[in-house]
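Entry: Cullin
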Amino acid sequence: MQQRPRGRIRPPRRGLVTDQVDFDEVWEVLSQSLREIHQKNASTLSFEALYRNAYKLVLKKHGDGLYKKVKELVSEHLQYVADRDVKPLVPSAVITGSSNLFGSAAIEKRIGGSKFLEQLQAVWEDHQLCMSMITDVLMYMNRIYCADHKLPTTYATGMGLFREFILLNNVYNIGTALNRVILDQIQMERDGDVISHGPIRSCIYMLECLYESEEENEHERIYLTRFENDFLAASSEFYKAEGQRLLHECDAATYLQKVDKRLREERDRCVDTISSLSESKILAVVDQRLIKENIREVLEMDSGIKSMLDHDRFGDLRLLYKLISRVDPDKSVLKEMACNRLIELGKEINANLKNPVAAIEKEQQENGEPSTSGAAAVREEKSASNATALAIKWVNDVLMLKDRYDRIWEQSFGEDKSIQTAITRAVTQFVNDLKEAPEYISLFIDDNLRRGIKGRAENEVDEVLDKAITLFRYLTDKDLFERHYKIHLSRRLLANRSLSHDTEKQMIGKLKVEVGVAFTSKLEGMFKDMTLSEELSTAFRRDQEGLGPDSPSKLKFDLSMNVLTTTFWPTKAVGSDSKPCIYPPEIEAARTSFTSYYLTRFSGRKLIWKPNMGSADIKATFKGRKHEFNVPTFGMVILLAFNDLPPGQDTLSYTDLKEITAIPDEDLIRNLQSLAVSKTRLLTKMPMSKDVKPTDTFKINDQFSSKTFRFRVGLVAINKAENEREKKETNESVEKDRGYQIEAAIVRTMKQRKTLSHQELLIEVVEQLKNRFAPDISMVKKRIESLIEREYLERVDGRRETYKYLA
């Protein structure tokens, strides 16, 4: 209850108090004056005289009588006020409990309720003022008598009497009427009507000031005990119905906006109408009825979260996040449905990738392409080349999808860490659903490092690399990515197709940060080989310059060699077949000369030549115009074969070329396609078709022309997605390598721990290998059994599920 300022009690002047005091006589004067106060005629009274009279009664031990008489007088007055001022205005509709009135009845109800509140407000404010004046008169009694006897002060007693005779008047149901009128007014405002807040606020303040008992405990405020529960219950019913109405009438965005508006209204209502004591409680009601109970149904609407995410409706998503955060700190339903949509979109990207590949293969079968081994290889090349473009599109599509969700996360979801984790988990799921993902991510990096970053600023290049690393993090099978990346890197280096070695090293540095030096050691070894090869080629040239012009070892052309360390370079990139082709004499002399030089410098080493990985610059004249072009080594060997034709012969058949060069069928077909079928047709094929057959013949294209002096004759699909045969070979090789890595992890763990249970060993091994791949539990078990057979481990006697390391 609001405390009144404490007044000063001055001692009466000497001679003021006589020995004898007639209580009835003095009370008659006091009571008449108190009635005048109630009648609003206090201006004619002398408060000093009244104070002296009350002082005399208390001083002469009449405090008990005075206290009781004042209480009786206030009670009589309040009963009179209830009969005269309040009862006539108690709305009959409220007393009978009627509701849901419409038209003129509703208007009459609103007006009647407003008058009732205004009257009760006036009665309350008059009573407060009168009790304040009476308390001033009886200040000495409150200070001495009430304090000594531990009785409520006059003011507190007056508030208690107001509670009993007005508010809790069981005859007139004033308290019940007050509750219903206030709730009706609030209902009208919620329905869009305009109400007067002042009387409601005053009556609410009255309820806050009054208590259930004289102890005036905070939790016993009448507002809390008699009104708030009714208010919350009525609000709960209203918002339950409101929620169902909005679900049927609104789309998802409008629903969220209506809920947000209701929350603001209730918050404002607790400031200017209802008590602030109820703010958190009424907001909890709105949260429960409009958000918690209905949010899943809202999100599942056609206009719900799926539409919001697909159309980048950041504002709606921001409001959605704000509202869900009110009822669920974990945002479970938001994470679930947003990530489900993300996975759906990711699977659509995967499906769009697979369908065009299937269509390509079907088209090739329907066209009845040749079934020779070489032609079949070419068909695989063409299919793989198409798949390469689709692979790069897949990566770009995944990155675009991820970027879009990142923007939503930043702009709408408040950069919530738990949602970021959920998004990462969702992307990881659909990325790893595509078994070719490691290869495709490597192809994406390859495409950018060969041509995609050309002309870009340093920060743009760094952004591309960071995006690639982001996708790399999602991969479960990082060892499979490593295998493909080695192949693609080796081809870039050997074909001199990388735009920047600094960028290449920057990418390797990023990979090293992610998965450690063991992952990148062989990649760095490749660059070391390239540097050493450049130095070796320079030293070989100097050696050539020191030879006399008539020396048989003196070369007539420049020669650069790449000498590769076998353990660094993937066999698939450089080729496993060591059978050399038949070089033209001048080329064979150069090969012999370099071999002799190299073995002189590095005795004991062995050189295996890989013509499928080299290239040559050739000068030729077509139609009187000179050109210089770069071709693969096999292409050079094919072209030079036409230099040695006898007079009168200008053609060579496929069989002739195979016999002269000894180039394997697959490589011969690919190189002939590049020379005779592609845009740069240095050879003419007869008959002309896209496919190379054993019966085809070839000759130099005398009509060849080019606008440029220098050009490159590229080999068909140097870097491409793997065909089915290659995928099978890669998977078999990866599985074999994984077996070795699992065994190494088991041995490392057991060597350190000596004895471990089966389950503990599984956990340790999975933990060690998780940054490279997710080991299959059945494979781990097989490797454990293999190590037991080879006596690296043994089972502990009596505990077959426990293993012991054998030194």
